[in-house]
Amino acid sequence: MDPLELGSHALSVCLGLGLAAAAGFRVFVPLLVMSAASFSGHLELSEGFGWVGTMPALVVLTTATVIEVLAYYIPWLDNVLDTASGPAAVVAGSVVAASTFTDIDPMLKWSLAIIGGGGLAGLVKGATTLARGASTVATGGFANPILSTFELGASFLLAVFAIVLPLVTIVAVLVLVYFAGKKVFSWLGQRQAA
Q1: How is the chain classified by DSSP, letter by letter?
Q2: For the chain, what is the largest distance between any 2 Cα atoms, rounded to a whole number of angstroms?
Q3: Phi-psi region for residue 105, left (φ > 0), alpha (ψ -120 to 50) or beta?
Q4: How many CB atoms lie within 10 A of CB 69?
Q5: Within 10 A of 57 (CB to CB), how many other CB atoms are there?
Q6: Vertex 186: Cα angle to 185 and 191 (nearest 5)
Q7: Are 54 and 97 in contact (CB under 8 A)?
Q8: C-alpha distance across the termini of the chain, in Å
């Protein structure tokens, strides 16, 4: 494999993992960004995923995104959605990752997509679920709309940056996962000591 081909594969993996991390914040936002980028010719999708860049997919994903975003601003529904969307985020993370892994052996592509993309989306979703639970307990849910706005912005920016600057995005995601993990383990250690 020549260095240019290897670099192309590495960038497609970084792109897919960046989009997968965005799916951990909001399930439909990265799918919508990916659909718009593909529809406008700015993103090449893997074989079998061309449907994502079509007008019907763009309309459906726009509708689903609007419904998802609005639902997170309804006080009790946001906590229900966090619980229900955990498995959906893992699936979405796997799908967006697989759809961007171009010219990779199918076995490797789906292994990376499920383990890397689904795992990363699940980690981010787990962190946001813990944050929403803490916000609900600490503020009676009054701060949850602020958290929802942050999550929406993070999902959108992460998805856009994953397409525009995939290598920078994956480095940023890994740094965030490291610090979030450190914070969670510190919190669990303090809780266990008490």
Answers
A1: --HHHHHHHHHHHHHHHHHHHHHHH-SHHHHHHHHHHHHTTS-PPPTT-GGGGSHHHHHHHHHHHHHHHHHTTSTTHHHHHHHHHHHHHHHHHHHHHHHH-TT--HHHHHHIIIIIIIHHHHHHHHHHHHHHHHHHHHHTTTTHHHHHHHHHHHHHHHHHHHHH-HHHHHHHHHHHHHHHHHHHHHHHHHHHH-
A2: 56
A3: beta
A4: 18
A5: 20
A6: 95
A7: no
A8: 54
Q: Are 45 and 97 in contact (CB under 8 A)?
A: no
pLDDT digits (tens, 9 = 90+) for 155-170: 999 999 999 998 888 8
Summarize pLDDT for 30-60 with one digit per residue, the tens: 999 999 999 999 999 998 999 999 999 999 9
pTM score, two decimals?
0.89
Token match 């497609």: residue?
12
Give the separation between CA 13 and CA 116, rounded to whole angstroms.
Answer: 9
State the Cα–Cα distance between residues 38 and 46, nearest whole angstrom: 11
User: What span, in angstroms and rounded, lies between the C-alpha atoms of 10 and 1?
Assistant: 12
